[in-house]
Structure formats: C-alpha cells, structure tokens
Amino acid sequence: MPMKKQRNNVDFPYAIRSFVGYLEGTHKSIHTIKNYRLDILAFQDFITREYTQSPIRLDELSHKNIERYREHLKERGLKVNTRRRKLLTVTQFLNYLSKRNKIGPEMAQKIATPHKIERIPFTVSSQRLVEAIQKLPDGTLLESRNRVLLWALAEMGCLVSEVVGLRFEQWSLPSCDSDAGIVQIRGKFQREVPTSLPLYFAVEKLKLRSKDCPWIFLGFNRHGPLGSPITVRGVEMLVQFYGPKLGFADLTPRTFRHSIILHWFEKGLTELEIQARLGLKTTYAFRSYAPLLKSKMETTSKLEKNSMEFLEPQE
Q: d(Cα 51, Cα 1) in Å, to the nearest integer?
C-alpha cells in the first residue's frame, strides 16, 4: 500500500507568516492585512491558553477548539459583527492551510458565524467633496493625475480596483451636444457610468499630458511616472494624504462610494438604477447599502413632517 503523505508540523508563527505573504500576494490593503493578522494572533493566544504548550501544532487542532473559541468571543461580550469577522478570518486562515496540505481538510469546513448587522456607512457631501477636489492644483502631471483620480472616485462610485485599470479609450463623449461623459467599466462588473462634462474635459487634459500612455492613472515613484498604472495601495495612500486637505480627515476610498450612492438617491435615482451604476447584479448584493438609504428616507420623511407642521396655521 502506498504510504500516506505526512504533513510537516506547522506552528502559528510559520503559518501566520505564510498567510500574510499570501494576502500580500493577492494585493490586499495594508489595513486589511493588519486586521487579519491581529485576529489570527487573538486566536493563537486563545489556543495557547487551551494547550499550555509551545509551539502549538496546528495539525492537532479540531473543531472542538473552534467551538470553544466561538463561545469565548461571546463570553467576552464582543459585538456581533466583531465576532463574525474574527471567526471568518480564522475560517480563511485554516482553509488556506488546508489547501496547502498543512492541516487536514476537515478543518476547512465553514464555521457557524452570527448574522451580520448592517451599519449605516460614514458619508460626506458629494457636492462639497467634488468642489474641494476641483480646487486642487494641477500644474504638474502628478498633480493633474491626483486631482482627476480623486474626482473620478467622487463621481463614479467605482471600486478602487476598477479605477486603477482605467484607460483613456474607455472614456468618451457620446455626441458633441452631450451633457455627460460615459465611462465603460470592464471586468467582472461591466457597465456604463455617466460622468460630468467638467470631469470628462479634465481627463482629456490629462490625456494630452500623458504622451500617448494608455493608462489614465499612471503610477509614480521619486524618479517620475512609471509605465504601469497606480496600485490599489497607492490610491489608498493618496486618499489618506488628501483627506485633510479636502476638509474630510476621515476620508477613505469606500467613503467616496457610499457618499455618491446617497447623492444619487437624493437626485431621485431608483435603487435599481443605483445598483446598475455600481455594477451589482442582484438586489442581495445591494443589501449593505439598505441601512444608508433607509436612514436617508427616514430623515427626509421627518423633515417633511416637521415642515408641514410648521406651515400649518396656528389657531
């Protein structure tokens, strides 16, 4: 009989380094990687207390350890979403190790997690944000790229991964008398997104400066422009740097997306129209924005009610 393949014993330090390397290789943000690592370290601390031996061998773990960890998180009184995130991180960590034959396949089974409680996302005024971006300097190619990139995020509601790959050929003006530009978003969520004429002309100006480079948003280093587009991490750093300058210290790439959704809703677009602009295929995928729209509707309804009460004649 053929001998069963033996797995090398894997301790936490090695496994965590390997998993973090995998996350970096798949271009996860520094913020995401940091949170993943902290969640796994918390799991390691719990397992260490359970076994009282060092180093801990991950191939000795069982689902009983996971169940005890889940109860431990609940006993600590952590919020539902926090417990859910920590358990999902452990699931991904163990699944990664199982696929690399470091632990048994039984450990790759899904862990029961609490249902996510959707929170109202942080938003800012899209109009104020765009106005602040328009005032940014664009004297150099780098300044122009930064200004247009931030402007595109503020108007289009695209994912950062979609914006970094944009080419000039994807941006067009349907006709001479058109009042909006059109961007063809490619990839997994193909769609057309309308943009303002000022943004379209800003892109055309950037195109003239880019000297036939196909990428709209070039990457830069200290020596100048690169021959490849800016990275997702580069956009995150850019937003973090410009947030205070624009008057929004807590600005993140996700804030742009949440804020423009609320702006579209205020302009009268239906949920289906907003869903189409975001490239979401189903209403289920749109669920994370439901609390945002519900909150806005309740606020609008309350303001209208107060306005009517104010206008009613007093006896």
A: 35
